[in-house]
Design goal:
Blueprint (H helix, E strand, L loop, with lengths): L3 H7 L7 E6 L14 H4 L3 H9 L1 E6 L9 H8 L11 H8 L9 E10 L5 E3 L7 H11 L2 E3 L2 E9 L2 E7 L30 H17 L8 E8 L7 H5 L3 E4 L3 H9 L3 E2 L6 H10 L6 E6 L1 H7 L3 H19 L5 E5 L16 E6 L13 H4 L5 E4 L3 H8 L9
Parallel strand pairs: 1-11, 1-12, 2-14, 9-10, 9-11
Antiparallel strand pairs: 2-13, 3-4, 3-7, 3-8, 5-6, 6-7, 12-13
Helix pairs in contact: 5-9, 10-12, 11-12
């Protein structure tokens, strides 16, 4: 795993530009009917051409066999140790929608979900209700005060929301009420350390009251909470890499994550084309660009193989808008794999492609998992991606005499 302090010591500023395109949930597995993964099924002539002129490989976001969440997966791609720098999902969502967390606050990510008459979860995402419906339901839940703790509820997008618990003596070391699967009841929030009992009790009372208030609001008749956390603090990308970075992302969690590592956040629209247009409009102002594509991951989590293929083809069709800018380094990778056949994140390594005039090309001619297994990068850790991009952009000096 890369030593971030070493990179900090040898990084320098330069006029070169790096574009990091993260296709969320990029990796897949073969469809049982065809024997081909989503990438192998999709028509991606532009990604294939880029693979043919770059160097390719596979990356482990955390470690072999470990399934990453979106936060750790992205932190690793940004060069941070995903274990020691792990950030709770609630904080990422909160910062992503510009909530100013105060010292002592604990934020949690929430899902509106569907339960049956026995309390068993039948849909963890409540059919992906509209963002307008989410905002309406958040108003029902916002403003509770339980045992001296003020509870603020903010809509995020579709079924997602943020809960902020504000009060004295709140420790975030509690378990989640989201079992991450259907067919079971939501477990209670439990204290994982002696000082976390107060937050666990308050969170359980909040969930119980939410259940009562949402009883007549099918399919969003219950809530699930996860990612309890307070705001962290660690070195920014400016401090480590001497970069002037910009993030272009639609979904709040990824905007929040980028903000926590020091990126400026671009205002952008809701579509893939909006994101590409935003990057182009800001290209002269920054030297590092994080461009995030969410919809591949959403399709994979829904088990929609065909939709994930379609999104990959849409990204490929837009790719010439990036290559036309002639960045000095272009990296295409993912934060984790989300195979449609598994309907969720998986432990599988993720394709990574680096293209610059200084990279050693390899024989790979196709942008796919099977092709990249033979690539010149081999199998690396995701934390190696940023140093490789920096080196190819001539932003790292020599180490040692």
């Amino acid at each position: 795993m890369t030593n971030i302090d070493l990179v900090k010591d040898i990084s320098i500023t330069s006029p070169t530009k790096i574009v990091l395109l993260v296709i969320d949930g990029l990796g897949g597995l073969p469809d049982p009917q065809t024997g081909k993964t989503e990438l192998e099924t999709a028509s991606t002539p532009n990604l294939d051409a880029l693979a043919a002129k770059g160097i390719c490989g596979m990356a482990d976001p955390i470690a072999p066999g470990i399934t990453p969440g979106s936060g750790p997966g992205h932190l690793a791609v940004f060069g941070y140790d995903p274990v020691s720098s792990n950030i709770g999902r609630g904080v990422l969502e909160a910062v992503g929608i510009d909530i100013e967390l105060q010292p002592g606050d604990v934020a949690a990510r929430g899902n509106f979900c569907t339960i049956d008459e026995k309390g068993v979860i039948t849909d963890r995402r409540a059919g992906r209700i509209s963002s307008d419906k989410c905002a309406e339901l958040c108003k029902l839940l916002d403003g509770m005060s339980i045992d001296g703790v003020n509870i603020m509820v903010y809509p995020v997008r579709e079924h997602r929301f943020v809960v902020v618990f504000r009060g004295e003596d709140l420790a975030a070391d509690v378990s989640e009420s989201d079992p991450s699967r259907t067919g079971v009841a939501a477990p209670p929030v439990e204290a994982l350390s002696p000082g976390a009992g107060k937050l666990a009790d308050v969170a359980n009372q909040f969930v119980a009251e939410a259940k009562n208030l949402l009883a007549g609001h099918q399919p969003a008749n219950m809530v699930l909470l996860r990612g309890f956390a307070g705001k962290p603090g660690f070195a920014t990308m400016q401090e480590i890499y001497k970069l002037n970075p910009l993030a272009v992302a639609v979904y709040p969690m990824y905007r929040g994550l980028a903000r926590l590592v020091g990126m400026e956040i671009a205002d952008t629209g809701a579509t893939l084309q909006d994101e590409f247009d935003t990057l182009k409009q800001n290209y002269s102002k920054y030297d590092f660009f994080f461009l995030h594509v969410k919809w591949t991951d959403s399709a994979g989590e829904d088990g929609d193989f065909a939709r994930k293929v379609t999104v990959l083809e849409q990204v490929d069709a837009a790719l010439p808008e990036l290559t036309g800018l002639e960045p000095d380094v272009l990296v295409v990778t993912g934060d984790h794999s989300t195979p449609a056949v598994l309907k969720g994140h998986s432990w599988h390594s993720v394709p990574v492609l680096l293209c610059s005039k200084y990279c050693r090309t390899d024989p790979v001619q196709m942008f796919s998992e099977s092709a990249f297994l033979t690539g010149g990068l081999g199998r690396i850790h995701s934390t190696d991606i940023m140093p490789l991009a920096m080196a190819n952009a001539q932003k790292l000096t020599k180490f040692g005499a």
